Amino acid sequence: MGRIILVTGGARSGKSSHAEARVRAMPGAPVYIATSEPQDDEMRDRVARHREARGPGWTLIEEPLDLVGALDRSDGAGPRLVDCLTLWLANHMFAERDWEPEAARLTEALLRQKSPVVLVSNEVGMGIVPENALARAFRDAQGWVNQRVAKVADEVEFVVSGLPLRVK
What we know:
Blueprint: E1 4-9, H1 15-24, E2 31-34, H2 41-54, E3 59-62, H3 67-74, E4 80-83, H4 85-94, H5 99-112, E5 117-122, H6 133-152, E6 155-160, E7 163-166
């Protein structure tokens, strides 16, 4: 089994750059599994900035929904970075797909991986209770996804203000 590392934190906490550094430090050519589906210019700019900051040498897999398939297809190609579980979950919810069986499939898939996987996720439940039902459902679902992945992870890090704190 490969090493499973969950890196979580708030928006702009430094979790993605920390996760990238973790993957770069591992042997093998790094693989970046992107879950975003840029729908507007601002998101396309974010993706471009992330890509530029990563630099060359990464194999890119863009997979907004079939994360399990992307992990299985890329196993053995090198250490993988999944950025991020939050967008992956949002993609499922916006597509009105049942995210719970997908989350179960994900944890099962992580346990069978031979190459390391570093997953980035957001802690979205640390603020006020959202005013609308969709936002509350998303907040709750993200918490459950994070708990499931953390349970099977070998390591969990919480990034605050660019500083990683080891949780597990």
